[in-house]
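Let's practice the habit of predicting before peeking. Look at the sequence and jot down your guess about where helices and strands might fall. Then scroll down.
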Amino acid sequence: MKTVIVGGVAAGASTGARLRRLDESAEIVILERDQYVSFANCGLPYHIGGAIPERGSLLLQTPESLAKSLALDVRTGQDVVRIDLAMKEVEVHDQEHSRTYRESYDKLVLCTGAEPIRPPIPGADDPRVDVLRNIPDMDRIMAHVDSGASSAVVVGGSYIGLELTEAFRARGLKTAVVERTERLMPWLDPEMTRILDFHVSTQDVDLRLGTSATAVRRTEDDRLVVDLSDGTSIETDVVVMASGARPNVNLARDAGLKIGDRGGIVVDAQMRTSAPDVLAAGDAVETAHFLTGQPVLSMLAGPANRQGRIAAETIAGRTSAYRGTQGTAVVKVFEMTAGGTGMTETELREAGMEYRKVYTHQNGHAAYYPGTSPLFLKVLFAPDDGKLLGGQVLGWDGVDKRIDVLAVALRAGMTIFDLEHLELAYAPPYGAAKDPVNMAGFIGSNLLRGDVDLCYPEEFPDCADRVTILDTRTQAEFDAWHIPGAILVPYTELRQRLDEVPRDKPVYTYCRSGFRSYIAYCVLKQNGFQDVALLSGGVMTYHGYHRTPLTVGHGGMPMVAHAEDDLARLPGALEHI
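Done guessing? Here is the structure:
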């Protein structure tokens, strides 16, 4: 049997490799329109910035190595321009020899990937305006940087945009980021990204949030100017459009294959398309979301590789099925790491799904061991049975492993109650006896069991007239900054000063991160106060939601110290906020 695979990067190479391992007799042809196959496209920004010094490190396989190790017929520079479903052939343009030929197939696998979006503005298609999708794109950007560039503008503040921003700063370029939304990483919830915005701004990056590029034009001396929606302009040497990507489905659409509402090729769990003997995998396809069952585009390397593997197993007659996409992702942003898994609160609201949420800000590892700082962790779960729905984590150390723990727990159908009981690795350099994931479980379980009531930053300032807002921190912290309308009773003095807290209306307690205010909550409840709630995540979450000023510490780390002694344990002297 002959299988033709269109596209030779993540999904395509995985399909071919898996199919060969399952069927030594299969004829496998991979047609790739570019000159490179099986390259590490996620590593491209890191070579631009110098973290990966050798260009060859990104070339995981070559046509020659794939032919030698797996007996795959890999042809680069071959642009498939048409599918003839009736004849079971593809029409191929050989770019090197300027000829067109037809290739027959028994099974066809479309792994056509995605293409970068260039916003529909004047100048976006200028040859000097770059995108980053493949090795030639990377080479072109590096050539522009190496030609004496001193500045760059990145349009888009998500994965690729921020990785390129870090790369350009590492190369010494004055860099601006233009992001049309009010925050970086718009795939995370807004209150979670405030800390990231602040961190990036401390890296000598000119952040233009809530601003769009309206045009790109050239100056008389051949520099570039990016005009912005706020009426300002930025003159620069390098411009990269990192505004997202769209599925490359032209070939499939022209052949009459079904295209979904999200713009991707419709496939079933075995990666079969609407046409007989045609499969598809990778960035170009829509798959079912793991939690909702609704079609989504993932455009992530992990799902693409798994989908390619399943396509091969379907061709080989196996019964494998793709089990849905949950969107687990992580990104390095200068000294910080950010990521998430499952659904965000924004997505849950849009889907009309009921949920509860908790925030926690434990350190990445034991506070007494040097080199740690707080994680900003958010967990979402169902209000009835506590089933996990999503999680987001930002911080400086230990972020990736918490995302992975939450990703596995979500995939396994675990609940917020299960997080209480996870036995996670602990030693002072790596974690804590009560891991941040455990702590999220404790808080969420307390919430669902009715042991605690929580309030959230979005309730402020509207609640100020009807509740008593009780600050449980120190006098110094209160004097430096406090929630408007709050009264101060430090938690260590609360038992002796209960008569200062009004009993005729609800009491909302808060502190820096939620620990001291929880103790205050328990004191109030057990002394007869009926209507009490504590601010989940404390002022650290409050600042994220209301985007109030933050104080910078080591490495651009914003912080709110909750006690004088904390200053000695944190990396760098930090001021109260």
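How did you do? Residues 552-577 have pLDDT under 50 and may be disordered.
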